Structures are given as C-alpha cells and as structure tokens.
Amino acid sequence: MSYPRKEYGNQGPKKQWSLQEAKVKVAAYCAYQERCQEEVRTKLAERGIFGTEAEDLIATMISEGFINEERYAQAFVRGKYRLKKWGRNKIINELKSRKISPNCIKSGLKEIDGEEYWGILIHVAEKKWQSLKETDGMKKKFKTHQYLMGRGFEPDLIQMAIEEIILA
Q1: pTM
Q2: Exposure winner among 38, 66, 73, 113, fewest CB in 10 A?
Q3: What is the 3-state secondary structure (H, E, C) of the chain?
Q4: Residue partners of 43: CB distance under 8 A and separation at least 6
C-alpha cells in the first residue's frame, strides 16, 4: 500500500491578512522573539501588506514597544556570540544585512566582554587546531586562520591566538 507524496514546490500564495488581523498577528510575532523592522516588513509583504499600510503598522508596533532595534541588536549579539561563537566581524555584517543602524550595532556590541571573547576565540581555535589531521605546520596554521576568519574573528586576534596555541 502506498501513499501519495506531498508536493512541496507548488504551494499557492499565503492567505492575505486584513489590517486588524495583521496588527494582532504581528504583535504575536514580535512578542514571541525579538524582531527587527526588516523581518516584520518581510512578514507583512508575504501576507500582502505593503507601502504606507506596512510602515504605519511598523510605527505602531514601535510605539507600543513590540519592536525595538537596540534591544534586538543586543539580543542578537548575545545569542550569536555566546551560543554560536561568532566573532565581532560576522555579527556586525549580519546586523548590517538586516538594516540595523550603526548606533544600535554599537550598543549591541557592548554585550561582548573582552576577556570572555578572548576565551571563546582560544577555545574555538584549539578545537579547530586539534581537529586538523594536517602534519605541515604552515598548512595547519593557514587552515585554522581561515576557519576563524570565517567565524568572524579579527585577523590580529587570530594571529595572537594561534601563536598562543602553538606555544602551549
């Protein structure tokens, strides 16, 4: 006995929201987790609300405290830094891609403690260094450096961390 497979590619457009329905849904969407204006704008566009209607709704959400970009940036930095072990550069680029203002980004980066940041960098670098099967020291240094750059750490800090690992 076989069952028909579900077709994933051909779902129609999502149900359109009225303005009243959108206000309730967006409030719930923002209350569940911190959101930036761009995420809310995208959500509204998916449901057929564009232009001044969307901007008015976003302004209402900001005035009621559902959307706060500074709070969003701080929560984003805490999560990516502590849980995903991202470096400053990657966090900054991701926030810029979400159209967060430079002041909010600066405020968010204050969540990063310098000593803890160094400890995370050393931990991630040691873990990568030990996982590499490479026998040539230069290749191993290069691969570790590239990996840490991809994680968003600063080149000068990476160099210092690699030197510390080699000497240890």
Answers
A1: 0.86
A2: 113
A3: CCCCCCCCCCCCCCCCCCHHHHHHHHHHHHHHCCCCHHHHHHHHHHCCCCHHHHHHHHHHHHHCCCCCHHHHHHHHHHHHHHCCCCCHHHHHHHHHHCCCCHHHHHHHHCCCCHHHHHHHHHHHHHHHHHHCCCCCHHHHHHHHHHHHHHCCCCHHHHHHHHHHHHHC
A4: 26, 29
Cβ–Cβ under 8 Å, residues 38 and 52: no
Give residue-wise pLDDT tens across range 22-33: 999 999 999 999
Q: For residues 24 and 14, what is the distance between their CA atoms, to the nearest angstrom?
A: 17
